[in-house]
Design brief:
mainly alpha, 13 helices, globular
């Protein structure tokens, strides 16, 4: 029988621990990979379900109010949908032509503005362009690839939004989820009788924490984005930016993904303010002033008052979540699942840290 010294035993124990950790990590990575591939494959079927679920999260308090008024779930759903859809239809009837004119005008003038911006960049920063080309990537080809990527993303969203069947299925899921009784963590763990009592309480707490993060984000962030959309839209319109209301409103709404609206819309607004009809340095300065004012109000008034720190993810965490899961799934579904998946990771980490990691004294 071979006898090992204490140092040899420590070395073997360390090696076995590392091996076990590698096996567990590899198994977890394989499960994650299978999950991502399955979600990608089922994306067309899952997207209406997820949209219906998130809409139900947002409108549940409104549905609960109607239920108290009419005392009947069917009448409450009918009253809620009528009070929401009628104003939307009226707004589309009277403002639809305005929106279509603005959007079509933006699309028609986009190539001309893009050419002017590209020529200005090449003329103003020739050294930077030369350095960029030395890296082995052509500036023109990079810009073309960027345009193609943005266009593909916009077309994927537009393709979904233009499908009447998709919205009908989403509406069916919405009605189903909004009328379901709200379940707590305790309700879910009742289906897990194999767990110990203290483990069931712990799991119930984690489930409640997960839903608190997800519901808080979507209910509050949508309100924030609508406020931002009206603020930027009216601001851009008042300073004389052509198509200003449409650009500003889209900027605010797209900030459901933090900074995404700014990244997409400000490169459209600034060239239009400078080179567009009636534009110039003054209009450009006013557009930037409106955007900076909006950022200040959002950072110090709107978001702290409405959202606070209810998500538990932090501003940087929310941004990372959208971009990471958007790249992983490469579809609208990735953006929809970003916060739930990140919330699950946060809750899982908190649970592991609480139960298995001892604090350093």
């Amino acid at each position: 029988m071979i006898e090992f010294t204490s140092s040899q035993k420590k070395t073997i124990a360390t090696a076995l621990t590392v091996l076990a950790f590698t096996v567990v990590a590899g198994f977890a990575a394989a499960i994650l990979w299978c999950f991502v591939q399955a979600v990608k494959f089922m994306s067309p079927a899952l997207t209406p379900l997820v949209i219906g679920l998130f809409l139900a999260m947002f409108f549940r308090p409104y549905y609960a109010w109607w239920l108290k008024v009419v005392k009947n779930p069917t009448l409450a759903v009918a009253a809620m949908l009528t009070s929401v859809l009628v104003p939307i239809v009226v707004a589309a009837w009277y403002g639809g032509s305005f929106a279509v004119d603005q959007i079509s005008g933006l699309i028609e003038t986009a190539p001309e503005r893009a050419a002017k911006v590209s020529a200005w960049v090449k003329e103003t920063f020739p050294n930077a362009i030369a350095m960029f080309n030395k890296l082995g990537v052509s500036y023109d080809s990079w810009i073309a690839g960027l345009k193609a990527g943005v266009l593909d993303f916009i077309l994927s969203i537009a393709g979904y939004m233009s499908g009447a069947l998709n919205w009908l299925v989403s509406l069916i899921f919405f009605v189903y989820f909004v009328t379901r009784p709200v379940m707590s963590g305790e309700d879910y763990v009742k289906e897990m009788p194999f767990l110990k009592d203290d483990t069931r309480r712990f799991v119930a707490e984690q489930i409640d924490s997960f839903f608190d993060i997800v519901v808080s984000f979507f209910q509050r962030q949508v309100v924030i984005c609508l406020c931002e959309g009206l603020m930027y839209g009216l601001g851009f319109m008042l300073v004389g930016l052509k198509y200003g209301f449409t650009i500003g409103f889209v900027l605010g709404v797209m900030n459901l993904v933090p900074l995404f609206g700014t990244v997409v819309c400000m490169p459209i607004a600034m060239p239009l303010a400078y080179w567009g009809p009636g534009g110039g340095g003054g209009t450009l300065s006013l557009v930037i002033a409106v955007w900076l004012t909006g950022q200040f109000l959002d950072g110090y008034l709107i978001t702290p008052r409405i959202q606070g720190n209810k998500t538990g993810l932090g501003y940087a965490g929310v941004i990372f979540s959208f971009f990471f899961w958007g790249v992983v799934f490469k579809s609208l579904l990735g953006l929809l699942l970003a916060i739930p998946l990140s919330a699950f990771c946060v809750v899982l980490w908190r649970a592991v840290k609480t139960r298995y990691i001892r604090p350093v004294v």
